[in-house]
Amino acid sequence: MKKIISTLFIITLFFSCKNESKPEPIIVNYPVTAKVDTVDTYFGTEVKDPYRWLEDDRSPETEAWVKEQNKTTFGYLENIPFRTDLKNRLEKLWNYEKLGSPFKKGDYTYFYKNDGLQNQYVVYRAKGDEKPEVFLDPNTFSEDGTTSLAGLSFTKDGALAAYLISEGGSDWRKAIILNAETKEIVEDTLIDIKFSGLSWKGNDGFYYSSYDKPKGSELSAKTDQHKVYYHKLGTAQKEDELIFGGTSLEKHRYIGASVTEDNKYLLISASVSTSGNKLFVQNLEDPNGLLIPMVEDSDSDNYVIDNIGSKLYIVTNRNAPNKKIVTVDASNPEAKNWVDFIPETENVLSPSTGGGYFFTEYMVDAISKVYQYDYDGIRIREVKLPGIGSVSGFSGEKDDKELYFSFTNYNTPGSTYKFDPPNGEYKLYWKPEIDFNPDNYTSEQVFYSSKDGTKVPMIITYKKGTELNGKNPTLLYAYGGFNVSLTPSFSIGNAVWMEQGGIYAVPNLRGGGEYGKKWHDAGIKTKKQNVFDDFIAAAEYLIANKYTSKKYLAIRGGSNGGLLVGATMTQRPDLMQVALPAVGVMDMLRYHTFTAGAGWAYDYGTAEDNDEMFQYLKGYSPVHNVQAGTAYPATLVTTGDHDDRVVPAHSFKFAAELQEKQVGTNPTLIRIETNAGHGAGTPVSKTIEQYADIFGFTLYNMGYTALPNQSVLKEFKE
C-alpha cells in the first residue's frame, strides 16, 4: 500500500509571556501520520502495525515525517520562556577544562583533554617534560563536530597507532593507521568495521571485527554474523584474513579478538547474545597453533584479564554469580582445569591490572570499594578512596611505575589521582575548576520495597536545606537491564537541574548488575515486569516521603531505559507529570529484526519463541499498549535519525501512537536529532541543546513560567 502523509494541520501556539503561577498551555495540532493495513500473526493472534512504513529510514515519506515532527516540536520548545536561560547556564557550567588520565606509549605520555566547549575531546601527548602537543584533534574531522573518535590503539612500543572514527553517530566505523612519531597516515583507510576494538599483533597488523554489509539500509537492516579479521599492514583490506566467524558452526552475533600484552596469545570471545560467551585461545608463537576452546558454552561470562607466560588469569561468573578470578595453563585451558585465584565474595567484582598488581573493585550497594593483590593472589591492602562514590582506573601495563584512577559521585565532579603501586599511596593529580560547589549538595542512599517485597537501593541527590514538601521538581532516572550497573557519577546537566532546586534520584533496579547475575536474571524475559515494578515503587517512595508529588515528577531513561519509561508511562500514566524516553526499545515484537537487536534476546526473549513469550512481550510493549482516550503525561520522545543500534523507528511509532490517542492538553512530542546516533560521540554543542530542551520542556510542564532559582541566573549573568 502506498504510504502517504496526510495533510498537515496548521500549528497554533497560544502562549503567555507573563511570569504567572500557571503557564498557558502551548496548544499544538500535530502532523497527522498516515496508517497502513499491515497485520502480523503470532501463534494465531493478529497484531496490527499501522505505522510499519516508518521503519523505512530511506523513504522520502519517512524523511518528510521527520521534518514535520521536528517543525512541530521545535515550534513548541522555542516558545518556552526560559529555554535560552537554561542553554546559557549549561554552556557556562560546561565551559571548564576536562582532563583524562594519562597513559604511556613508547616515549610519549598521552592524555585526552577538552578545553571546555569543544565538541570532541582532543588527544595530546608529551615527551618527558616537554610541552604537550596535539596528537589527534577529532574536532577537525567534520565541520559540525558529528564525526567522532571511537577508539585508539597503539602497538606495544608506541611506534604505530590505529584509530576508529564514527560518522553521524553510526556504529559503523572506519580505521585509520598512523606512524605515531610523525603522525602521518601510512596506508588506506579500512571501512565497514562494527562493534569492534583494534588489537595489534606486534607491529605487523591488527585484529578487528565486523559484519558483511547488509542488503538494504545499513542503518536498520539485520546484522547477524560477526566475523574477526586480521589486517596485515601494507596489504589491501580485501586481502584481510578471516580468522573466526565465517562458517555456520562459528556463527555468532558478537565476536571480539584481543592479543595479550606480551603478544603471545590471541583470545577470541564469541556470543550469540549480550550475556554469556564462548572463549578460545591461540598461541601466536606457534606457526601451527590452532584456536583451542576454553569455554564451549554460553552459560557464563568470561574473559582473560592477563597472563604470565602460559598462565592465564580469567575473570568469570561461571558458578560464581558475583564473579571471581581463576587461573589455568594455556596448554590445557578447559574450565575443568581452572583454579580459584581470587574467590567470589558477596559483592560484585570488577577487576583491573597495572604496575604488576591486580586491583579488585567491588560494588557494595552500588558504591566502590577497592583492594590490591599481587600475582600470587595475596591481598596487599585496601585502597582507601577519597570518599563515597565510584572509582575507575587502576589499569596499565605491568611495568608502569605509576597508575591513575578517577573518583566521582552524583554531586562531585570527577577528579584524577596518581597512585604509587608499591606503597599504595596516592595524591591528587587533577581537579576540575568548575562553577559548582559540591558542598552545597547532599546524596543519601535509601532502600525501598518493590511490589513483591524486594528491597531496592536508590541514591537521592539534592541541594542541602531542601524542604521535603512534595513540591520539588524531581528527575527519576534508571536503566534496569543487560547487567548494567548505575553507580554514582557527576553530570553537568544534572548539576544544572539541582541548581534549580531539582532532586535527582537513581534506583538500582533488577535487571542491572549491581548485585551480580542473580539480580540481572531477576529482571529478564518473563521477569521483566519486576523492573517496571521496581521503577514504579521508586516513584511511589519519592511521593510518599514528600520529596516530590505527581505534579513535579519526571521519569527519564535511555535505550533499555527508554523502554523502561515507555512501559511505565503506559502502565501508570497517573504517576508522573512528565515522561522522557530516549532512544528507546519501544516495539518489543519486532526489535530483533533490526541491526543487532536479535542479540538482546537473553534479556527480552522474542515474539517468535513461543505463544507465552509473545503474549508477555505484547503485554508491556510500549507501542502496543498506548490506549485511546487516555491522558498520558507530557512526553518528549528523543532519538537520532542515524541510530543504528536502537533504530529510530521504535521512537517514531511510539510517538505516532501517542499523538493519535492522547487526550487532554499534555503535549506528546518527538525531538529527532539529525546526523546523530545512539548517543556516543554526540558533539557538546548538540548535547547542551538537548539538555536545554529536555529540562525546559520538563519544568514548563510542571507549571513553571520562569526558572525556579533565578539567583543562579543572576550570578552567572553578572
From TrEMBL:
Give the UniProt entry's GO cellular component terms: cytosol; periplasmic space
- One matching Pfam family, short form? Peptidase_S9
- Reply yes or no: does the keyword Amino-acid biosynthesis apply: no
Q: Which transformation does this protein catalyse, written as a reaction?
A: Hydrolysis of Pro-|-Xaa >> Ala-|-Xaa in oligopeptides
Q: Which InterPro entries match?
A: AB_hydrolase_fold, Pept_S9_AS, Pept_S9A_N, Peptidase_S9_cat, Peptidase_S9A, Prolyl_oligopep/macrocyclase
Q: Which GO terms describe its biological process?
A: proteolysis
What keywords are annotated for this sequence in UniProt?
Hydrolase, Periplasm, Protease, Serine protease, Signal
Keyword Cell inner membrane set for record = no
On the tree of life, the source organism's domain of life is Bacteria
Domain (Peptidase S9 prolyl oligopeptidase catalytic): residue spans on this chain: 488-703
Write out the similarity annotation: Belongs to the peptidase S9A family.
> Could you tell me what this protein is called?
prolyl oligopeptidase
Species of the source: Maribacter caenipelagi
